[in-house]
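Hi P.,

Sorry for the delay on this. The queue was packed all week, but I finally got your sequence through. Input first:
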Amino acid sequence: MQRSDKIKGLLHDLGKGLYERDEVLKLALLAAVAGESLFLLGPPGVGKSMVARRLKYAFKDARSFEYLMTRFSTPEEVFGPISIQKLKEEDLYERKTEQYMPGANIVFLDEIWKASSSIQNALLTIINEKVYRNGEQEIKVDLKGLITASNELPPEGENFGPLYDRLLLRYHLGEIKGNKDFLDMITSTEKVYEDTVEDAHKISNADLELWHDQIDAVKVEEEVLSVIQIIREKLLEFNQKQEDPSLQIKVFDRRWKKVIRLLRTSAFLNEREKVDLMDCFLMSHALWNQPSQIAVVQEIIAETIRKHGYSVAIGLGMLRREIREFQEEVEQEVRVRFAKSEEVLRPVEEQYYEILKNGEPFAGKYLQVKDYNRLQNSDVPVLNLYDDDFKLVSRLAAESSDAEFQVRLKHNSQFHQLKLKTYQKERFEYHYKAPHPLVRSFWEERYAKLEEYLEKQNLRLQSEQPLELLKGKEHLFIDASLFDIVEANHREVKEELDALQLKLEKTQHLYDRKN
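Then the structure:
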């Protein structure tokens, strides 16, 4: 069974009997395989503990530990009681950890912000190093998934920052929204706490050990690194605009490094050898600090991928500048400009043309620009002027260069040949000369380099990326609707590369043309 099929089947099994919980289950599984943790924010009774209990069944022979924190919780209740026998016989202060958190693979800690400082310190070591210091020895903890939960954010001024920062993924879990899903949930009689995962879909310790190094080998392409860098800059810009420091979105270096591991894991489980832009949408669950920032983070990520996804890695900005400068240099060398005057209409106040008779203003009469334009395009050229006794009945046949500015007017039963007031406008014509052979040779080298780079980037978009784009809608952890954002950027970059290729060819034609 292929790895992606295994994970797809596993996610399907984990979601049996649950409603509107697919996304959080996906994140929980992804975090567990990546060796990261998940924080669930939400009111009581929305299934936070259910996520952890279901996650246990994703792994073969997994042991779980679940605990509800209170202000009076002690380390003994989380990490195990002191071994009286060891204390008496060996004078060792050690805990019996087998049935507690250090001996578990899947851990759920509810009301995490009620944990005492001593519990927090031990948790930090377990999360960071996968180690629990038990007396004088260090116990290697086989912790696959840590899920914490609360109905509130960490209280200010109580030094929960280090622990909160280490919980990489954050998810705001709410009530079921769909009416049908809600009714199906409350009337369902399925036993949601039972193991519904097929053995063939379960992940073994051997799988995880094998996957560990393979995940680290997944490549992070330039377009992904560029997107991350731009997102980081946009977050810094957002923070600078916040007068209240508590509203800032603070993401430190350690979190960015963990994000890369998460993206690599996503790519690996999707059967890819490198991270792509679809994986980047997972960052929306790792960068916010409070729910009010979720929409901001999502918008920044989507906008960055939409505008800069492939364009920065391909170097469109550099290409635009290089080809523009090349074109300007060639034009300056081979084009010679000549000025030429021509007669054009002079509008008055941008709405009227002044009527002349024998070269002088005709009784202060004007023709509206819109009427003149309509007359030009009309089969029946009859328009009313401002005075009721004036009617424009036809245009003079085009017998001279300025005939288009002449009109026939009927006044008191007489026809008059009149002219609209014009002025001389200077326009420019260009003649071309052949460049010096040495200059032309230099330009040919420059053209060849730019063309080679364009061909290389076009080939990359046409051969490599479409394979990723084809799989984009089948992403295991990201909603297929977000694929449109990636595809739009890919399409626009391809179109701009084609436009730059055409511009480059036109520049070559300028110095290569026969005069």
